[in-house]
Amino acid sequence: MYRWCVVLISLLAGGASLAPLALMAASDERLKKDVVRTTLEAIPGVPFASWEWVDGPPGRHYGVIAQDLERVRPEMVHTGPDGMKLVNYGFLNEANHG
Predict the structure, then answer these.
(1) Most CB atoms within 10 A, among 28, 79, 81, 98?
(2) At a CB cut-off of 8 Å and minimum separation 6, what does 56 contact?
(3) Can you spell out the DSSP letters for 21-84?
(4) Cα torsion for 42, 43, 46, 52, to the nearest 10°?
(5) How far apart are CA 70 and CA 67, in angstroms?
């Protein structure tokens, strides 16, 4: 079964606009097949990867594998109630631009 979870946590900023604080997406290696890790790194020690979903939209997809990220930056990974790993892409983006 394909699992996709996006959680947007927003904060009312200045009474007028919403500022996103977290964007979490299912990224557990167990949900992926034909995973290919590249030599490029999302952050030091965490390779970019491509994969196909076991049960999801067809074609190659790109990003990071939750387990790879968890070994280096565990605060950027959440384990859902089903045991599957979610990546906080908001934190990952901040780590690259912060």
Answers:
(1) 28
(2) 2, 4, 31
(3) EEEEEE--GGGEEEEEEEEEEEETTEEEEEEEESSSSSS-EEE--HHHHHHH-GGGEEE-TTS-
(4) -20
(5) 5
Dihedral sign, CA of 51, 59, 77, 86? negative
Q: Are 86 and 27 in contact (CB under 8 A)?
A: yes
Q: Residues of 20-44 as b/e, b for ≥16 C-beta within 10 angstroms?
A: eeebbebbbeebbeeeeeeeeebee
pLDDT by residue for the chain (98 residues), tens digit each?
334 444 444 444 444 444 445 677 889 999 999 999 999 999 999 999 999 999 888 999 999 999 999 999 999 999 988 899 998 877 665 555 55
